[in-house]
C-alpha cells in the first residue's frame, strides 16, 4: 500500500520504517526539516534499537522517503497515519493542537483533489481520549474535505503499543492490534496494512479503541506503583519483597489473570477489606507512605456511592434490592457491599425491600448474625420471601445477583427502573430502554 505517516517522532519514525520494511511504499511527513533530511539521508531521527539499520535499509531501497509537503504526501498515498504528539497541558488535560492542525492540513489537501484514485483513509495513531476523534477531529476533517467521513473519506483509530527501547520488536510482534473503525471499509484498510503480523486483531468502535490505550497505560502504572509500595512495606517489615512477588506472580488463576478485571460492583467480604486495612496500618506504623494501597478502600466506597447516586437520579422512593450476601452462593453478609448499599439507602429514607435466596435471618449465626444486627438491625422487616414480592413493591430495582430466578423475572421497559450492578446477560439490549441504568457499562 501507499502510506503517508505524519509525525516522525518515536511512534511515527518506527511506524514508517517498519511499514516500509513490510513492503509498503511510505512517505514520512514532518514540519521539522532536520528530521526530514535525516530520513532522506537514511538516518533515523530517534535513537532506538534496530531503527538505524532499518531506516538505512528501507531508504536505500526506495521504500521510505520523507517530505515537509503535506500535499505531496497525500498525493502519493492512499492511507495516512497520524502520529503527532498529544502532550499534557499544564493542568493535565490533553493537548490536541497538533492533531487538529494536521487534520486540517490533510483535509485541505484532500479537498484540492490531491489524491489520485480511490477513497483516502485517515488513521489516527496518536494517543487521545475517547470522543476526540468523533467529536473533534472528524468534524474538522469533514469541514475541510467538504464531504462525509465514512463515505467520502475513511477514518479509523489505531493506537500503538510500542515501548521505547523495544519499539521495532514490538511493532513486528505486537501484543494485539486494535482498529477503531468508523465504517467497515476503513477498518479493512487498516487490517490490510498490518497483514502478516502476529497477535489478535480487535475491530471495535472508535471510542473503544481510544480508551484501550489509556486502560493499558493506567494499569501498567498501577502495577508498577503496587509492586513498589508492597516492596517498601516488605522492606520495612524485614521481608524479602522479591520472594513475595515470585510467589504472587506464580498464581496464574487469580493474580496474573483476567480475574477481578471486569467492571462491576464494589468488593467486600471478610478478607479483602480487613487485610487491606491491616496492611495499610502496618505501613503507617513503619512510616511507609502507600498512597495507592491506602486509597483502594476509599475508591471502593466511592464506587458503591455511584449506585446510591443512580437511585437518587431515578427520583423514586420504593426500592427493591436483589442480592445481599457479599458473594453468590453464600449467606455471608460480613462487609458485603450490598449490605452497605442497603444501609445507605435505608438511612436516606428509601422504602426498601430485599430478596436473596441464600439469606434467611433465622439461619444466620455467630459473627455473621452479629455483623448484620449491628449494620442493618431492621433486616427482618426488609427481607422479602420472593422475587415477585420485591417486583410488586419496587419502583427502582437494584440487581446485585445473577440468580436465574431473578434474571428471568426482570421486566423490560421503563417500569420499574433497573439499576444493573452486575452487567446483566442482556445488558446490551437493555441499554436502549429508558428504565435501565448500568453501573458496569
UniProtKB/TrEMBL annotation:
It is an enzyme of class 1 (oxidoreductase). Coiled coil: none annotated. InterPro entries: 6-PGluconate_DH-like_C_sf, GDPman_DH, NAD(P)-bd_dom_sf, UDP-Glc/GDP-Man, UDP-Glc/GDP-Man_DH_C, UDP-Glc/GDP-Man_DH_C_sf, UDP-Glc/GDP-Man_DH_dimer, UDP-Glc/GDP-Man_DH_N. Residues 320-427 form the UDP-glucose/GDP-mannose dehydrogenase C-terminal domain. The keyword NAD applies. Keywords: Alginate biosynthesis, NAD, Oxidoreductase. Transmembrane segments: none annotated. Belongs to the UDP-glucose/GDP-mannose dehydrogenase family. This is GDP-mannose 6-dehydrogenase. It comes from Streptomyces venetus.
